[in-house]
Amino acid sequence: MSLTLFDKKDIKNKSENYSKTKNSKKKEKMKQKEARKQVKKRKKLQKKYKKENIREKNNAFAPLFGYDYTPSYIYSGNRYATILKIVNKFGTNHDGSFGWFVNLIPESNEEGNVITKLIEADKPIDSKKQDEIFKKEVNKIIRGHSEENASKSENEGDKTIKELVVHDVLQASRADAKSKLAIDSFIYVMITADTPYHVSKQLRKINENYKDQINGVQAMSVAGNQEKMFKNLLEPPKGDKNDYTWMSDEFAGNDHAVRRGLDDDTGVSVGELTQDYTGGQALMSLYNSIGKRAVVGAYESSSIYQYDGYDDLTGSSLWGQRIANDATVHGHRVFHIVMNGFEYGVDDFDVEGEDKETKFVCPPSLERDIGRVDLSKGNLNPIEMFGDSVRDKDNKVQIFNTNLNKIKHMFKLMSGRTLVPRQTTMLEEALVTFYRQKRMWTEQPEKYPNELRIYGLKSETVPKMGAFTTQLTDLVLKNTSEKTYKIDDDIRDARHLETVMKNALSKYRAIVNTTTTLPDPKSIEKLQMYYDLSKLSNDSEMMEAQFLNIFSYVMTACEKGDVIMFHGLDKITTETLNVIKGRIDTATRQGIKLVYLFDTIGGSGYSKTEGLEYANLFNTEGLLYQSLDVDFGYTVLGAMTLKDLELYQEKVKQKLTARLQSILTATNEPYQYQIRRPIDLTSVIVQGQFFV
């Protein structure tokens, strides 16, 4: 047996060593925890950098050595830069013609490798914000600069400046009263050089030149804001800058001038840039740029290079086909509703059994993914309704009401537009009764939505229009048998409706009294489907009736991201478009993209002989769009007439310069098109040249 003895000193040392070991372990754990935290943070940054590819870019947006900022300068590697605001003093440069600001572009100095750039970005101020500015802020400015608020120490120079401020603000206020747009923008100058000395020397030279040539303009340094201003240059304007605000008439078409090239990362060639400083090919991402809707408008005189030999082809439909092909490349389908006879097929495609050439050919590889339907042969039961079981489960009432309005409008068309409101009301009552008797509708649809048999029925089980004739006959008999209690007008109205229906059955039985023979809209696998109405062009009323029938079917066939394309929409009246306006709005909300192709821009809008207004780019405001300048992902417009130009300037609320007017009305340039894309302020003129 052994015995170990410890004295107090040994015990104390062991206790201290234990405490040190414990503290050491605790510190080690904390270090490890911090190290893990740093590793996690580094991995997160690496993931972010890998995603953004920041260091691998090594270009102007992300140089290898990065950017460093001081209050007055930016430097990267061995180069220095500064960014300055361009300020135009109140009351000056009012009489400058369009493009006067080109004089703001400074001349660079060779010494010190000086490079100077002028950067301008702008966007229209939101109408609500504009209203707020002119109702509140403008009045504050005017009151603040009034004589009663003048200081005793003010001299004549101070008073003059105040007068100039009030003059400019009042002028803007008058423009606002005329519904002119206010433009929010910034104008910067960026100077880069080898040293800060060369930068400041160039700045002095710029301001001296401004003073001599365009007095009132000054390049102003904004110390401490260099990083923020630099980042502003790398992206489109966001939020409200209000560095430089002007009215659209003073803006004088700046946003219509050639502002930037068209060189999208996923773009396809659409032609050659003209009216541009650099030239070259325009590469545009046609599908991705659509947004909710796009529009192409061009007269029959417009065409695409090397397709102008086909007399029946229209420039707008050629653009439409190029857009459609790009959509299919991105994995989406396109449903074409054709009113203008546009055909797209292979060389040996036989049109309705006739041995004739198609207008032009598509690659054979595309042919197997294309389907065509001749709607002059019917194929659609007007009584049948269509809808998506998931998307439209809350839209049953809208679908029914749209179909009701569709049939009422079809009757109006088949009667030669002779129906009066009293007869339309009687027709609606008869239709509702008919649908109730067929157990497709109920008296309380909102309360009992599950009782509605609106869509998803087998086509062969849906009653045809001929069955509705019986309903109208019963209506006549009812009115006749109750002659004591009915006025003669009711009897005449009922007989008129019956006559319209019987005449339609006699003339258009294949269209009016048919079972739907088209496949279930949800089963369509073709990438592009063409529903041709053009063979009904000699009977415009029946063409419009079939147009209403096919839209509901096509909308149901679409999935989110698919495209409905309207060829020759100017052959449809605004009255007919109004019938499906609600469903058009629903389509955009459901993610279906709409492309409108007009074979006119503003012409042939009104038929004096028939008293009808046919759709064009301008009179469909409120039907197809709310703002021509904002609502379209892009607009493609061929040469306009002078009358079109006046209407166009009204819609965009701008007075364009003589130079721009001459470009946009160059009817001797059949391949010329203006492309505008609001989201990134693209505005270019191209000579249309592409393969479809």
Automatic annotation (TrEMBL):
The lineage of its organism: Bacteria, Bacillati, Bacillota, Bacilli, Bacillales. Residues 1-50 are annotated as: Disordered. Residues 1-19 have a biased composition (Basic and acidic residues). This is Uncharacterized protein. It comes from the Bacteria. Residues 38-50 have a biased composition (Basic residues).
